[in-house]
Write a structure and sequence with these properties.
Blueprint (H helix, E strand, L loop, with lengths): L10 H11 L2 E5 L6 H6 L4 E4 L4 H12 L11 E4 L6 H12 L6 E5 L16 E5 L15 E2 L11 E2 L5 H10 L16 H14 L10 H13 L7 H12 L5 H13 L30 H7 L4 H5 L2 H23 L2 E6 L5 E7 L5 E9 L3 H17 L8 E8 L2 E4 L5 E4 L3 E2 L1
Parallel strand pairs: 1-4, 1-5, 2-3, 3-4, 6-14, 10-11, 11-13
Antiparallel strand pairs: 7-12, 8-9, 9-10, 12-13
Amino acid sequence: MDNELYLPRLIDSQLDEYLDEFGAVCVEGPKWCGKTWTCKNRAKSVFEVADPKGNFQNRTLAQMDPSIILKGDFPRLIDEWQEVPSIWDAVRFSVDENPQSGLYLLSGSSTPKTKGYYHSGAGRISRLKMETMSLYESKDSSGLISLKDLLNNKPKPTLVDQVSLTDLANLIVVGGWPSQFRLNDRRKARNLAKEYIDSLINFDFNRNEDKTRDIEKAKRLLKSLARNESTTASIKLLKRDMTDMDGTGLDEETISDYLSVLKRMFVIEDQAAFSPNVRSSTRLKQAPKRHLCDPSIACALLNLTEEHLINDLKTFGFMFEALCERDLRIYCQNIGASLYHYQDYSGKEIDAVVSYNDGEWGAFEIKLGANQIDEAAINLIKIKNDFIKDENSTPPSFLCVICGLSNAAYTREDGVIVLPITALKP
């Protein structure tokens, strides 16, 4: 591919590192997030399983003898490998036979059930998750403040470019789809998420699955997930929501089954619950926070435009939280950290917890408006003090309020960091 057209991604350095260490690397993530472009930027040869030429002759060839398609210059990219799951074992066997690293790149927008292949590939094939673009990757964040550096360096007052409510709404509605940069006006890219949903439901939902599922039921579940974006909605709540809003719900077993399909397609991203110490006496809620892989999908499912968000600030707040947590998830992977949320049964909550690989962690509240910063800071300080009182818990190393409408990054007198999402990088 033409390297001059390639927009660098945060995953690039990680992928290069994995190619140096493993015989094969599988890059997986939601459809259209840029996996193929990133892999082609490194590949010396390419085999596209889903190429429709010749009545999908590539797929037929791979089904007949997967080992044939592995012949080519290394690194060799096998794009959409999940269309023929036996390719996985063929790659694993080839890597066993050849002690070199960086032989194969596999890219895929879904994970087949394990019965489609026989060996995990541990030690031979490394998996690397890719997401849609963060604000730093799309150049909508200046990157003046590093998530990694927050552990040791509290930011001094730093002015950043002012972002309007309309600008933030547009970033949410358009989303992090790389295809938007092919357009002269990125504001026109709001239809990309709608096309993604149409392709997902009508073409991909039942592909490579063991049975055919009802796409109308899938649509209802996706809309319910959109209405409950950035919440800890249980399966029972999703069932009740569909009944109330659509007139008919799904049974809990069906919801669980459909959710598993959406997870395998990387459409949904659960944000796990955090426990600062397993010996703590505080009873914690373990429900994950529900996210679609990009906030633009939720907006498209609910037909939300920038104007709708501005006129419904409560919904705007949930979608802004989804945007921030998408970026935090991407940044955490880049620096070897993990993203969680916190809830206990006394009503205390932390929107986002970043757990670093050395055991330290930071607590984040996410607020759309600058007028909410004081309340968020007070909440964080109160929770930190509770952790300090519990001798079996580890308190957060720092407290941070991520804000949408703030023109400065700074540390308050009480020690709480205030940080615009448009100034953050890994």
